[in-house]
Amino acid sequence: MPAVDKREQPEREHGSPSRAFTSKSAAGLIVGLALIALFAVVRVLAPSTPEVFGLPNAARDFATLSISVVVESLPFVFLGIVLSIAVQVWLPEGMLLRRLPRSPVLRRLVLSLLGMLLPVCECGNVPLARGLVVKGLTVAESMTFLFAAPILNPVTIVTTAQAFGWDNGILASRVLGGFFIANLVGWIYSRHPRPGELLTARFQETCSLADHHDGDAGRVRRSVQMFSQETRAMMPALFVGAGMAGLIQVAVSREVLVALGSNPVWSVLALMLLAFVVAICSNVDAFFILSFGATFMPGGIVAFLVFGPMIDVKMLALMRTTFTAKTLLQLSLLVALCAAVLGLAVNYGH
């Protein structure tokens, strides 16, 4: 009886009122995009003098940094949502799962290389990973993909190669280190006795709904509804994450971070903190950190390039739509420890 109740309740919630649900989501999306456009217009038209609108420099910096994170991330979030819908709705049933190896270790190895085919940064991989779980992947497999794909995608590899070449093994350390850490995380969480507890209740409900779509609903209609639903879940998280990134960057002095760059240990920790704070896209983060190359040791650069695409303030906000707070805390500590060890190994190995 409880199982029947659980199935019927979502139908009542998302069946006949789906039009209102979609309209509400679309209205929220329009309002959000309008706010972004308004901020962008204000930023472009505003003179460079700090007296504009009476805003102090800190407030102007906060607005600029927050908007830049949103503008940088938004295309990839939408691309990830579109890919997620393609996987869930348009990919033939079982096509992906049938082609994956049966061995759990080999499945995770293949999934960690899936990013080679998907030039999407970490923001877009969150909705795509959600779609893969809905489609039937385990939580551990989705984590492996989520952490490996931003580093092992072709755009990230090319930009890192252009920025650093083969100097100090930064490129190889980033690619191999990201691959190893993603598979280590996947292996650890594959041993969790109750993986469903790693997910939020709301996302578990989304997975349950996906199992009971009737065949009469057209794929186009389902795609529109899913786009609205995923957008409604992702946009608030993106705005919150961008706001946190902007606030922390204003509050934390970058000069303090630079002063720590020549120490083998502090250079790693400082750049991991910087990666967490700036929340920059993995496709362009190599060029961002290149300007710090003369100040910080290579291990710090590697730690920045590995830790940032996996864990930062924006990613935590996005991943909170899927994983519980306890899971995110564990993941953050585990990835931070691995990235720090990798950075220290590079520093002391040179």
TrEMBL record:
Region Disordered, residue ranges: 1-20
Topology in membrane: Multi-pass membrane protein
Signal sequence annotation: none
Positions with biased composition (Basic and acidic residues): 1-16
Transmembrane segments: 26-46, 66-91, 111-133, 145-164, 171-189, 233-252, 264-280, 286-307, 328-348
Family, similarity comment: Belongs to the UPF0718 family.
Name of the protein described by the UniProt record: Permease
PANTHER family, alphabetized: UPF0718 PROTEIN YCGR (PTHR34184)
Subcellular compartments: Cell membrane
Keywords noted in UniProt: Cell membrane, Membrane, Transmembrane, Transmembrane helix
Domain of life: Bacteria
Major subcellular site: membrane
